[in-house]
């Protein structure tokens, strides 16, 4: 047995050496056939003596461990992304900004890989954990899938503890192969290599990931000082020594904006022939001490920036002009065309804004049109190729009736609107309200996204928010939906299930029930079942609730469809309980009205409002004779003057705090 153990160690050492030469040095010393012979011998021994299989064995790369879900991982330090810039002027501005702090900076310039960021944790040189970037603070544990990536060392050349960050990506060759496989199986093809990489690394079955040919390019060490590294280019060299694949042949060192521009031009010329997709360069101050001086803003490093290559224009055929209805009833014409790859993304739709825009561009179905992505994100129609227009083409004509309810349209300014308040498309308003910040606060759902999802068919009822994960693969082909934004969107939806009851009550859109009344109701009844079992008299006994609000609530909870909706949300595991502080009635705040003005320093404005409301008081925006007291911070302005004129009590923020403390807050 000892002989076999020794042989296993020898084989793994040979395989690791061969992988290092192939990926890190790009200089293999053995043939593929020799590598396969060594690998297969190791595999045979491990199959016969499974107890000899090491944690860092290369045979682990085939995958096999299937997961029920991805566990959350909190990063040891935030994985911040860089701000994007798009032109020479912004490069110059970045260079000048750095030079105000650093006298003679040197920059590293690296290709910006078009994949997704990943973090690898090694203990004594052995890979222990891998995670996605997630929201930068919390990611997902993808260790089993990352082990299948051949360019990720399972064991480093040094027995050290280290975190390494880099890009998980799919080469152009692997992308073509993956789509051939999908096509052969009758499955929908990937839109682009980035989305293919994102979808592949998040497979619950690591065996599937292993077939996708993913790669990893290392580019960053979060704590380089622990390894006596003085610069970013030293860090990159160190990563290469550890056995990682780096872009050492494409990386460079430059000293000013002119040299940066030259580097960009040279890299752009190489871009079509590179084996992997890139979408720009990453520019970093090289000296690590200089990085410390520059530091961070609240969300991005000051010492680095990401330059994005200019948008690419492509030609396609306009197949249809499709009209959609917005939440206000606005009618928008949209260009639907043969899907084309625009700078790495598959695009099949672009807005045509309104009738005047269509007439100005003279767009016609059947035209050859030029498409580009403005700011590298939003697709737009640049122009119509008039010299290629068919002789029998028909001029654009604005529709006269709503495409949803057939109501005659009206025109206001440059836009057309459906005036029917009961038009089914107006249901979008309810969806927008449900996801809004003061309601369920589902981040990432702007009005336009909800409109698009409604028109596509993903969102028709509020319960559909909680079924969007079934469209995850389809979302990847929509414009602006990369792996990061889709993950953030789905995480935000999941997080909204834990909201306190008042948010849900407000989100339901009960007539006359605003944010404040929703909180009063939630605090009083404590859970949804108590609210559903209440009656008119019980509601009227609550000081803040008048006849109109009480009747509206009763009408809502007696409606069979509304009860069905609430029960559906319960089944989706939305929280139905009040999680805030119970309102504590007292003579100082209860039933009284307060106004906040000026810059508060002890509390934020929202914190002050919450404290007042927790004692049964309420806050308004304007001073009147009904105002009990005005709480003033720095530079209070006209509300303070009006309070003095009306003889209303005025509290400083310090006095406000003392009154709260007297109530044992």
Distance between the termini: 70 Å
| Nearest-integer average pLDDT | 87
Structural class assignment: alpha+beta
Shape from CA axes? globular
Largest sheet: 7 strands, antiparallel
User: What is the percent of helical residues?
Assistant: 25-40%
Integer-rounded radius of gyration: 30 Å
The CATH class of the largest domain is identified as Alpha Beta
Oligomer: single chain
Level-2 CATH architecture of the largest domain:
2-Layer Sandwich
- How many discrete domains? 6
Name the poorly predicted regions.
Answer: none
Q: Give the beta-strand count.
A: 22
- Please report the number of helical segments: 24
Share in β-strands: 15-25%
Offer a few descriptive terms.
single chain; alpha+beta; Helix Hairpins; D-amino Acid Aminotransferase, Chain A, domain 1; seven-stranded antiparallel β-sheet; five-stranded mixed β-sheet; 24 helices; 22 strands; globular
Compact summary:
With 665 residues, the protein is of the alpha+beta class.
Task: Explain what the structure shows.
The chain is about 35% helix and about 20% strand. With about 675 residues, it is of the alpha+beta class. The chain folds into six domains: about 1-55, Helix Hairpins (Orthogonal Bundle), CATH 1.10.287; about 75-310, D-amino Acid Aminotransferase, Chain A, domain 1, CATH 3.30.470.30; about 315-415, OB fold (Dihydrolipoamide Acetyltransferase, E2P), CATH 2.40.50; about 425-495, 5' to 3' exonuclease, C-terminal subdomain (DNA polymerase, domain 1); about 500-570, 5' to 3' exonuclease, C-terminal subdomain (DNA polymerase, domain 1), CATH 1.10.150; about 595-660, Rossmann fold (3-Layer(aba) Sandwich). The strands form five sheets. Strands 12, 13, 14, 15, 16, 17 and 18 form a seven-stranded antiparallel β-sheet that branches. A five-stranded mixed β-sheet has the order 2-11-10-3-9. A hairpin with a 4-residue loop joins strand 12 (about 315-325) and strand 13. The longest helix has 23 residues, at about 1-25. The protein is globular.
């Amino acid at each position: 047995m000892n002989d076999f153990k020794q042989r296993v160690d020898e084989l793994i050492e040979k395989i690791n050496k061969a992988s290092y030469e192939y990926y890190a040095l790009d200089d293999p010393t053995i043939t593929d056939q020799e590598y396969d012979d060594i690998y297969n011998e190791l595999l045979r021994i491990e199959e016969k003596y499974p107890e000899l299989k090491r944690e860092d064995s290369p045979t682990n790369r085939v995958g096999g461990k299937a997961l029920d879900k991805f566990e959350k991982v909190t990063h040891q330090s935030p994985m911040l992304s860089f701000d994007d810039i798009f032109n020479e002027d912004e490069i110059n501005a970045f260079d000048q900004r750095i030079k105000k702090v650093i006298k003679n900076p040197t920059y590293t310039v690296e290709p910006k890989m078009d994949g997704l960021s990943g973090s690898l944790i090694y203990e004594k040189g052995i890979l222990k954990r891998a995670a996605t970037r997630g929201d930068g603070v919390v990611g997902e544990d993808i260790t089993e899938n990352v082990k299948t990536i051949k360019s990720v060392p399972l064991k480093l050349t040094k027995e050290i503890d280290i975190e390494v960050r880099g890009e998980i990506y799919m080469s152009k060759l692997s992308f073509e192969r993956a789509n051939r496989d999908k096509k052969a199986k009758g499955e929908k093809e990937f839109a682009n290599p980035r989305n293919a990489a994102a979808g592949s690394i998040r497979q619950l079955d690591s065996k599937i990931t292993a077939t996708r040919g993913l790669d990893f390019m290392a580019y960053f060490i979060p704590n380089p000082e622990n390894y006596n590294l003085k610069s970013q280019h030293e860090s990159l060299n160190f990563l290469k020594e550890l056995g990682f694949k780096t872009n050492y042949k494409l990386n460079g060192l430059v000293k000013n904006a002119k040299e940066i521009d030259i580097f960009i031009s040279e890299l752009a010329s190489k871009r079509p022939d590179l084996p992997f997709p890139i979408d720009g360069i990453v520019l970093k101050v090289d000296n690590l001490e200089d990085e410390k001086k520059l530091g961070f803003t609240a969300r991005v490093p000051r010492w680095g920036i990401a330059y994005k290559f200019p948008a690419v224009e492509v030609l396609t055929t306009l197949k249809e002009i499709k009209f959609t209805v917005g939440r206000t009833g606005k009618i928008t014409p949209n260009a639907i065309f043969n899907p084309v790859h625009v700078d790495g993304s598959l695009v099949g739709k672009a807005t045509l804004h309104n009738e005047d825009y269509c007439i100005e561009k003279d767009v016609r179905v059947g035209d050859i049109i030029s498409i580009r992505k403005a700011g590298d994100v939003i697709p737009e129609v640049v122009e119509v190729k008039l010299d290629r227009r068919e002789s029998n083409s028909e001029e654009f004509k604005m529709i006269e009736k709503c495409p949803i309810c057939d109501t005659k349209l009206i025109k206001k300014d440059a836009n057309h609107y459906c005036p029917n308040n009961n038009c089914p498309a107006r249901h979008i308003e309810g969806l927008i309200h449900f996801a809004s910040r003061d309601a369920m606060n589902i981040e990432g759902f702007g009005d336009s996204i909800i409109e698009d999802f409604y028109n596509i068919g993903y969102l028709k009822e509020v319960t559909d928010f909680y079924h969007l994960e079934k469209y995850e693969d389809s979302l990847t082909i929509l414009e602006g939906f990369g792996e990061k934004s889709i993950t953030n969107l789905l995480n935000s939806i999941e997080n909204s299930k834990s909201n306190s009851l008042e948010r849900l009550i407000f989100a339901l859109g009960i007539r006359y029930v605003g944010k404040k009344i929703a909180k009063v109701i939630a605090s009083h009844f404590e859970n949804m079942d108590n609210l559903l079992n209440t009656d008119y008299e019980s509601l009227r006994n609550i000081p803040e609730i008048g006849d109109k609000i009480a009747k509206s609530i009763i009408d809502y909870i007696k409606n069979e469809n509304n009860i069905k909706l609430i029960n559906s949300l319960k089944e989706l595991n939305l929280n139905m309980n009040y999680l805030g502080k119970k309102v504590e009635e007292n003579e100082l705040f209860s039933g009284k009205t307060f106004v906040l003005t000026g810059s508060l320093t002890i509390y934020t404005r929202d914190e002050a409002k919450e404290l007042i409301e927790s004692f049964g008081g309420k806050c308004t925006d304007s001073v009147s004779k009904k105002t009990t007291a005005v709480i003033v911070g720095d530079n209070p302005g006209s509300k303070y003057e009006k309070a003095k004129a009306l003889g209303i009590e005025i509290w400083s923020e310090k006095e406000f705090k003392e009154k709260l403390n007297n109530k044992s807050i």
